[in-house]
Amino acid sequence: MKKKNLISVVGPTGIGKTRLAIDLAKHFNTEIISCDSRQFFKEMKIGTASPSEEELAEAPHHFIGNLSVEEYYSIGQYEEDALKKLNELFENHDTVILVGGSMMYEKAVIEGLNDLPEADEDNQKKLNEIFENEGIDKLQEILKELDPEYFSVVDFHNHRRLLRAIDVIWQTNQKYSELIAVSQDSRDFNTIRIGIEAPREELYDRINRRVDMMMEKGLLEEAKSLEKFKHLTALNTVGYAELFKYFDGEWDLDVAVSEIKKNSRRYAKRQLTWYRKANDIHYLTLGYSEEDFDGLIGYIHQKILN
């Protein structure tokens, strides 16, 4: 039986993945699965640059605004749900689009995550005490020393990710980056990875302008409405954490916005570090022409035939 195809659109934040994914979905008359872990939450539309109502109407999307920030959702649950949805979609489509910049979530779908040990209660207790007494900086320091490679790509503002990685390293005496590099499940579909690239200065300029646009669209009001949830993992992320400091009187608004831009650029840099290690991504240049898009379609058809 002919294998089904998953086209995975990857790249750093702000590069234009949403538009390319929609164009591909329209060409293949198919649907889109998001692997952007921040866009799962319905209350965080502006700060996560979720697709607009108009964009969502152009092609069916899945895993956009499907959760509340009050719900805990693990990467393991996402892997299970996304594969289930993918199998459903493959009943009616030969090709499905995956899109998002959450590197581990893409990996969970296209490769599967290695079987990692369950959380160790003693380790978790010890790490939570470190977090409460010495702050997230100490957890960052521990992980950087234990596994510099994983530290170079992890969202180090997310304490839950830091806790998990350190716990696993302590339990296994192996680097977390090595453990997750081993593919657990072979997938019964072809994966074709497509990226968008741009000079770093151009990318950073796009990110800065996008933050300004978010503020114009009402990011401040959105963050204010979520302030009561600021202790939750979902809100411990770029675009919200900085504005909570403004609400607390710790920073001026200009400083908070400047920090959002800086932290967004840092996140993009981590994404670029991750994708640079892959040798299976076919790149389009930012601002690609219709001719470039046609060339991409030719490349995809060639990969499908092979």
UniProtKB/TrEMBL annotation:
Keyword line: ATP-binding, Magnesium, Nucleotide-binding, Transferase, tRNA processing
Residues the record lists as binding substrate: T13, G14, I15, G16, K17, T18
Any one GO MF annotation of this record: ATP binding
Enzyme class at the top of the EC tree: transferase
Keyword Nuclease among record annotations: no
Region (Interaction with substrate tRNA): 36-39
InterPro entries attached to this UniProt entry: Dimethylallyltransferase (IPR039657), IPT (IPR018022), P-loop_NTPase (IPR027417)
Cofactors named for this entry: Mg(2+)
Assembly information from the UniProt record: Monomer.
Name this polypeptide is given: tRNA dimethylallyltransferase
Organism: Chryseobacterium arachidis
Gene: miaA
